[in-house]
Amino acid sequence: METKDALINYCLRLGDSSLILGQRMAEWCSNGPILEEDIAMTNLSLDLIGQARTMLSYSGVVEGKGRSEDDLAYRREEREFYNTLLSERPNGHFGDTVVRNFLHDAFFYYLYQALKSSKDEMIAAHAAKSIKEVTYHLRHSSEWLVRLGDGTVESHEKVQESLNDLWEYTGDLFEMNEVDEVLIKEGIAVDLQKIKLEWDKTINTVIERSTLTRPEDAYMHSGRLDAMHSEYLGHLIADMQFLQRAYPEAQW
Amino acid sequence: MSNTDNQGDVWEVFIQSKPGLPHKHAGSVHATDKEMALQNARDMYTRRQEGTCLWVVPLNAIVSSMPEENESFFDPSDDKIYRHPTHYVMPDGAKHI
């Protein structure tokens, strides 16, 4: 595999995960539990969509076929998306969203920390910029997890159930293939197994603070690397791409 | 700080726009504790580079004067124009004041 092809795919992975998680958070807009949290979640969404723009544009540039960030976000089919399976999980109740985001934020946090030293200047700059946002995202989701886990009996039970349900999508975060192999050799990508060691520590610390129990590793879904998704992504994309599909080339 | 809904207590938000300047009242947020109050204030009031420092203060920690006290609190200064520097005439010989 050529470095160029690997890089195109790698940028899609980063961009798509931000885009899809950002779209999920946008679904909370006007549906938040309280006004303050509604605005907070919309902020998170905007941060994530901003991150997606950078990586999707760059993927288009590397590809060199004139595809823009918008072409990539709004004109690809489900089987062309390389986002993490975790990012597409439905919002569920507020606790489900908190747990999903917490698991994902910690992943992004250590990934971007490591990618700051990527040999690809664009990726390194993107990581350095995004880490500030992601640091806050992780703080936000962690603090909520602690409050829900160590809250009432009901909130504790609910988020423990969310954690148990979402756990089987965490294995997918760290899977690697030839794309990673090629790019790690070039110093562009990072070894996700190393990221997992850091991720584990943070997950354990916050889960302990939350008085929750870390689920046992059992069956893990996979699919991100082959753009194989759960039934939820298609619905999300239909929603997200509706305008471009119904009115191609629509302009403000 | 008790309230009848479940949105949490009210916290007043103060933002410092530049280092060295005073913190100015910006508004209020709901939150159940100080960390959440700070996060909510950050998300509600500092999204457009408004500040370099944030304070959140529980509403019940603020002691306010009452409107009915306004006469005794504020009116006495009305007729004391000598408290303003503009009251004084500068002597011709004084320079650089």
- The count of DSSP E runs of length 2 or more, i.e. the number of strands of chain A, is 0
- Average pLDDT of chain A, rounded to a whole number, is 97
What CATH architecture label of chain B applies? Roll
Structural class of chain B: alpha+beta
Structural class of chain A: mainly alpha
Task: State the oligomer.
Answer: heterodimer
Order of helix and strand elements from N to C terminus of chain B:
EEHEH
- Rg for CA atoms of chain A: 18 Å
Task: Briefly summarize what is shown.
Chain A is built from nine helices and no strands. By secondary structure, chain A is an all-alpha fold.
Describe the structure.
- Chain A has helices at 3-26, 35-63, 69-74, 94-115, 121-149, 153-166, 178-185, 192-209, 231-246.
- Chain A starts with a helix and ends in a 6-residue tail after the last helix.
- Chain A has nine helices and no strands.
- The mean pLDDT of chain A is 97.
- Chain B has helices spanning 34-45, 70-74, and strands at 9-16, 24-31, 53-58.
- Chain B has a single domain, classed as Phenylacetic acid degradation B (Ubiquitin-like (UB roll), Roll).
- The interface between A and B is medium-sized, with 12 and 15 residues.
What are the key terms here?
heterodimer; A: 252 residues; mainly alpha; Ferritin; globular; B: 97 residues; alpha+beta; Ubiquitin-like (UB roll); three-stranded antiparallel sheet; elongated
Topology:
The complex is a heterodimer of chains A (252) and B (97).
Chain A: H1 3-26, H2 35-63, H3 69-74, H4 94-115, H5 121-149, H6 153-166, H7 178-185, H8 192-209, H9 231-246
Chain B: E1 9-16, E2 24-31, H1 34-45, E3 53-58, H2 70-74
Antiparallel strand pairs in B: 1-2, 1-3
